Amino acid sequence: MQTATEQEQVLGSSPTLCRLENRMGREAAVAIHHVLVEQFIASFAEPPEELILDFDATDDRVHGLQEGRFFHGYYDAYCFLPLYVFCGEQLLVGYLRPSNVDGAKHTWAILALLVKRLRQAWPAVRIILRADSGFCRHRVPRWCARHGVGYIVGLARNKRLQRMIEESFVDVEQRFEETKEKQRVFLDLRYGAKSWGRQRAVIAKLEVTAQGRNPRFIVTNLNGDAQQLYDKVYCARGEMENRIKEQQLGLFADRTSAHDWWTNQFRLLLSSLAYVLMESIRRLALQDTELAHAQVGTLRLKLLKVGAIVLRNTRRIRLLLSTAFPYQRLFCTVAERLVPG
């Protein structure tokens, strides 16, 4: 008795989605990113005065022999190192990278492309780059200074910086010993690493708690009060980490289990497109509702995972939802708000 593989006949093809994924390449990735940026621009009814672009990298752990996967010492795992760019809650870039590269690799190139397109749409817009210390490379602030782009970027501590703040830190520690309450002082410094070629403005946060010293540094070309820049501008980048968690935990951005590199990049971009869709629903249809600030996982659970009976005939398709569905009024509100015109 012959098996199907022993017979001389054409076997069934791979699933349609699998064939689509395997056809993806650089051109498709560029085209999808173009859609993300154009969707972002179209979301504004009027030109914005200021845009803050948040750059951040994260680990995308893998458990096979995928192309481009390497062991990363910081994350202590085999992974990819995707780069994300957000503006507020809106996603502009989801760029998969191997994990054997610098976390800031291609940052300035992506920033340059974004700035060029955004200024084509809005010539007077003020653009600011915001990122943690992993993106503090000499090329980024240098490029920003030449092209009129603001930046506020974390700066890793070193012995020279610590010497510059030591005297002030002793005073802060003394005040803590006297009050037993957390003390915070902000200093404006001028600092220049050798690779920078010049000195730049640095803000130092000197904090002392019961756990001891907690110094932090940021480098910026923005004007303003040091504490305001640190607390209100720089620390707000923490919201971007919540957006990345939404993609990885709620929209499966980490399902990069294919062997081929471009297939995995396409999967990341499918998740990115899903995030844009969910963010648009949240921004356009859920304003002033109980789910106005809900995570995408909550939106999927409460608005999309709804049991229904599907009735289909030659003229129409009807979806019958349960009358016991607890969010039926909100569901109808969302549907009405998403209808064009």
Give helix and strand order, one letter per element, not per position. Answer: HHEEEEEEHEHEHEEEEHHHHEEH
Outline: globular
Sheet with most strands: 9 strands, mixed
Query: If you average the pLDDT, what whole number results?
Result: 90
Gap between N and C termini, in Å? 64 Å
Helix coverage percent? 25-40%
The parts where pLDDT drops under 50 for at least 5 residues are none
The count of DSSP E runs of length 2 or more, i.e. the number of strands, is: 14
Q: What share of the residues does DSSP label as strand, in percent?
A: 15-25%
Q: Return the structural class.
A: alpha+beta
Radius of gyration, in Å, reads 25 Å
How many helical elements? 10
Give an overview in words:
- It is built from ten helices and 14 strands.
- Helix 7 (238-250) crosses helix 9 (296-304).
- The strands form three sheets. Strands 1, 5, 6, 7, 8, 9, 10, 11 and 12 form a nine-stranded mixed beta sheet that branches. It has a three-stranded antiparallel beta sheet with strand order 2-4-3, with no helix packed on it. A two-stranded antiparallel ribbon has the order 13-14.
- The longest helix has 25 residues, at 261-285.
- The chain is 40% helix and 22% strand.
- The chain is globular.
- The protein has helices spanning 16-22, 26-42, 107-121, 139-146, 159-179, 226-234, 238-250, 261-285, 296-304, 328-338; strands at 50-57, 60-61, 70-72, 77-80, 83-87, 90-95, 126-131, 150-154, 183-191, 200-209, 212-213, 216-220, 308-312, 317-321.
- It starts with 15 loop residues before the first helix and ends with a helix.
- The chain has 341 residues and is of the alpha+beta class.
